[in-house]
Amino acid sequence: xxxxxxxxxxxxxxxxxxxxxxxxxxxxxxxxxxxxxxxxxxxxxxxxxxxxxxxxxxxxxxxxxxxxxxxxxxxxxxxxxxxxxxxxxxxxxxxxxxxxxxxxxxxxxxxxxxxxxxxxxxxxxxxxxxxxxxxxxxxxxxxxxxxxxxxxxxxxxxxxxxxxxxxxxxxxxxxxxxxxxxxxxxxxxxxxxxxxxxxxxx
Length: 202
Known about the structure:
Helix content is 11%, strand content 35%. The protein is mainly beta and 202 residues long. β3 (30-34) and β4 (40-45) form a beta hairpin. The protein is elongated, with a radius of gyration of 23 Å.
């Protein structure tokens, strides 16, 4: 990812070098540094087959020298981290880099859902003439989104999905009107998860 993108807790990083880096020097001179830990986290370097498969999935040109690696422990959601490429990463021809570079990233927030609606005041109920939105901090698949629903006295109210979204959704909408002063129940599937397989944190 670019350093401006929020990364996954188990992010895989792809680095490009001028030559083919050796496995030993990558393991010795590249590490992760998590904000919440403040300590060096070793990296796990993917083998050639796994790296090639990843490059193909990312549509990265075959020409060039790449290394794919991951932090050796899961990162904390909502934290910041650095991928530190230290001096001394050696190429197969014996040449090594002379400087250290730290790439900074933010780890995306934990997967959560929030029911949103318009109210006349902060502690009032939802306005029955306005739609209710169920928003997610990370995208979910259509199959997952369609299973969310509201219940009132055994009556099931299914959501409306954004037609512009094809594969994943960051929210679903329940269309008004609703019965005034009624208490609706939000129902989500038992293993509701986002596109990365993370279950709800709330």
